Amino acid sequence: MRRGRRNGWVGLAYLSPALLFVLIFTVYPLVRMAWMSLHNWSLLTPPRWVGFDNYTRAAGDRQFWVSFGFTLKYTLIITPVLIVGGYLLALLTAHNSPVRRLTRTVVFTPVVIGLGVSSLLWYWLFSTDFGFVNKVLLDLGVIGDPVVWLGVDADRSNLAIIASVVWKVIGFGMVLFVGAIQAIPSDVTEASLVDGASYRQRVTRIILPLTLRTVLLVTLLSVIGSLLAFDQFYIMTAGQPQNETATSVFFVYLNSFPYLKLGYGAALSMVLALTILAFTVVQLLLTRRSHP
Amino acid sequence: MRRRGYLVGAVCLALCAVMLMPLLASVLASLKPTAEAAASPPTYLPGALSLDSYQRLWEYQQGLPVYLFNSLGTAMLTILFTLLLTVPAAYGLARFPVPGKELLFVVLLLALIVPYQALLTPMFLMFAKLGLTNSLIGLAVVHTAIQLPFSLYVLRNSFAAVPRELEEAAIMDGASSVQSLRRVFLPATVPATVTVALFAFIMSWNEFLGALVMMSKSSKFTLPVVLAAARTETSLGGTDWGMLQAGITISIIPCVGVYLLLQRYYVSGLMSGAVK
């Protein structure tokens, strides 16, 4: 009788605005995107059914593979730096003391700054004639002439951008790793101390295995984020030289908006969404196990 | 043991210095007088302090107030939409025997699985038809769609954690479901609500690609979009570095400010919602 009031249909009424919103602004665009990807369509001409032509066209498009390869390269370089670096920072600061707490706060601060804004900041720092990076390297005598960091050589641009993104997001992994390390029951740590385990043994035999799930989770989040990179390349290189540093999302953006090849852009979006989906499914399975 | 403590302290402080250097450099560069801000090679510290760069930013194109209004307006609307949608939904999911609940939850979290970067093309077409491009409401809708799954997840966990006795006491007193929501659940879930609002603000204030796609009129640009445009074209011929630094400083202040004020909520949100 006491449950009588809490009727399922009343609950559904509470859910319905959010449900309606998701149907209109996520599910419908998703269906529309799938439909668009099977059509040849610019804003000027009516859509024309072309089947899977847009997909086969992508497979034969050199720029598609350049973008995909470049995004993959960026992801493969930045992910280990973020994970290993973030983990080392977490080991350094996991113990609560004023100076370590301060360090955690400071290292995390760039995470809340926008990626667009931090990219502008580093666009300036890496600028050839006006930036501090060249100024410091010249003053220290490391280089003799100013280096052109951005937009001329793809690999050098990639490294500069990776440095800027590491600065911006390394605190994210660190905070999650600190949380996982602090969640290790203290009796486990104490037992190992009684057994005379060295710091190194404690890290490799206890801390690392007990935080492995978080490491995997953060790795997946980093991979997904890196595969979706856009802001930093749009702002720091604008895809130069010759779209060699145009990432996958950048390529979708170029086709859909400046070029208005909407059908082709939609097909590229589908490929992107499916790639990400594979990683997200693994991530959700991992998180599910932690919240039974 | 003691020596190691000092070593850790020294490493920590060195790290802090490295992390803060770029931010400090930007703030200091924003305070350089016009000529010094454009100097090549740059000076490390400003020779004199001046607000010239802020003055130029204030008057840049449509004027800084317009861009601040657009960014802040979008962020506030995003918070409003997100809370209006996810608070009731979290209540419904956590507290009612809704038929097909599991399936509905998956549908609601769909945006977690589909990256919004991929959905922008169809969304743009739809918004163009609805007159929602170049509109703060339209951009706030995009931002709400991005933020909805995380918010719902955090709030549902918080609603589910409210003790059953509190709710039953309210029901015994004859409270309707709306009255229980207002008297019992809203006060009990304030921390989660703050977390959700905080994340919505920071995401919306910072978001770049959606704003770039949805806003084509310069009078509707948000702060990051107008600054990105200003990096290549300015009144001085070359890039106006001083003005750019002023803009970066102004963009950073609100995020870092709310983060430092509400750090506890931010970190708890990060931990509980690491799904995002």
UniProtKB/TrEMBL annotation, chain A:
- Where does this protein reside within or beyond the cell? Cell membrane
Q: Please give the biological process terms from Gene Ontology that the record holds.
A: transmembrane transport
Positions of transmembrane segments: 12-31, 74-94, 106-125, 159-185, 206-230, 262-286
Q: Which InterPro entries match?
A: ABC_transporter_permease, MetI-like, MetI-like_sf
Q: Which residues form the ABC transmembrane type-1 domain?
A: 68-283
What Pfam families does the record point to?
BPD_transp_1 (PF00528)
Q: Which UniProt keywords apply?
A: Cell membrane, Membrane, Sugar transport, Transmembrane, Transmembrane helix, Transport
Membrane topology listed for this record: Multi-pass membrane protein
* Family the entry assigns: Belongs to the binding-protein-dependent transport system permease family.
One GO cellular component term: plasma membrane
Specify the protein name: Multiple sugar transport system permease protein
From TrEMBL, chain B:
Alphabetized, the UniProt keywords read: Cell membrane, Membrane, Transmembrane, Transmembrane helix, Transport
Please, one GO biological process term?
transmembrane transport
What coarse category fits the chief subcellular location reported for this protein?
membrane
Keyword set includes DNA-binding: no
- Domain ABC transmembrane type-1, which positions? 68-262
Q: Which Pfam families does the UniProt entry name for this protein?
A: BPD_transp_1
Is Ion transport tagged as a keyword?
no
- InterPro entries attached here? MetI-like, MetI-like_sf
Ranges that cross the membrane: 67-91, 103-124, 136-155, 184-205, 241-262
Localisation per UniProt entry = Cell membrane
Q: Name one GO cellular component term.
A: plasma membrane
Query: What is the topology of this protein in the membrane according to its UniProt annotation?
Result: Multi-pass membrane protein
Q: Do you know which PANTHER family this protein is assigned to? A: ABC TRANSPORTER PERMEASE PROTEIN MG189-RELATED-RELATED (PTHR43744), SN-GLYCEROL-3-PHOSPHATE TRANSPORT SYSTEM PERMEASE PROTEIN UGPE (PTHR43744:SF8)
Please give the family membership noted in the entry. Belongs to the binding-protein-dependent transport system permease family.
**Name recorded for this polypeptide:** Carbohydrate ABC transporter membrane protein 2, CUT1 family
